[in-house]
Amino acid sequence: MSPKPTCFDVSINDRVAHIRMSRPDQFNTFTPDAWVELPAIVRDIDRNAKARCIVLSSSGKHFTAGMDLAVFTRPDGIVGAVNDPHLRAEKFRADLRPLQDAFTCFEQARMPVIACVQGGCIGAGVDMISACDFRFATKDAFFCIQEINIGMTADVGTFPRLTKLMPDGWVRQIAYTGERLPAQKAKELGLVNEVFDTQAAMLDHATSIAKEIATKSPLAVTGSKAMINYARDHTTADALDYIGVWNAAMLSGPHMREAFTAKAEKRDGDFPDLLPLKDKPL
User: Among 161, 173, 250, 261, which one is most buried in terms of CB atoms within 10 A?
Assistant: First the structure.
């Protein structure tokens, strides 16, 4: 992937990719460059099957302070300087799509994504972590739907996803008030799986979980992710039908035999990676 990202550090070890936000002095705000770099990184890992799991973390005091206001104020930014209100509205809608897609890429990735939050996860940060498969946090972490505090409605993914991760009443409360949701309360509500004393402990745990996922059949893992996402957005009947169609095509006897053999021999299974995807149609 080229050029080298300016807002993120990326490493891959033991089939686990680690994406780390790397602008701690600016509280890892989402600059115009960040919105372009992040989906490019995720899609490169996904499409080229470079890893079996992704860990998303950050650096510095806060996970992210959200949107860099330069995105709004640039002459060529999301609002723009067009006088016609209807053309401005159409442009806003079109310009918003790439920002939404920057986080939707986590859902679309064939491998699971684990978010690790320290300090503040504000505004666009909530949009981002909501699109991940699951979340860990440090005890000092907090989550804030900041958009209400600057006079706007969150629009990059918070509401479609957060309402499926937390009780509706709590989503409404923090959305309307802009209050901070502490890590421990976030765990009680189901947004966060575990809370840790330190970022180092959190990353050690996330890496351990990611490595465990990487020992499983990638085909079975991506199938599980696809079925969970589908079930979230469809009826039970539709989801049952789809899992039948999926397994009719992709249930692998050889992979199952290897899983049983590996278990009996008390070793990790030896499974093939997912195949890289073509960037162009055949």
Answer: 161
Could you tell me what percentage of the chain is helix, strand and coil, using 3-state DSSP and rounding each to the nearest 5? 50, 15, 35
Q: What is the pLDDT of residues 186-228, one digit of tens each?
A: 999 999 999 999 999 999 999 999 999 999 999 999 999 999 9
CATH of span 8-214? 3.90.226.10
In which element (H, E) is residue 16 found? strand 16-21
Indicate if the pLDDT at residue 282 is higher than 60: no
CA distances from 78 to 12, 96, 99, 127 (A): 33, 7, 10, 17
Query: DSSP letter string over 79-101?
Result: S-S-S-HHHHHHHHHHHHHHHHH
Render pLDDT for 19-76 as a digit per residue (tens, 0 to 9). 999 999 999 999 999 999 999 999 999 999 999 999 999 999 999 999 997 766 665 5
- Number of Cα atoms under 13 Å in the Cβ half of residue 78: 20
CB 202 within 8 Å of CB 118: yes
Q: Name the CATH superfamily for 218-264.
A: Lyase 2-enoyl-coa Hydratase, Chain  A, domain 2 (1.10.12.10)
Kindly tell me the sign of the dihedral angle through the C-alpha atoms of 210, 3, 131, 202. Answer: positive
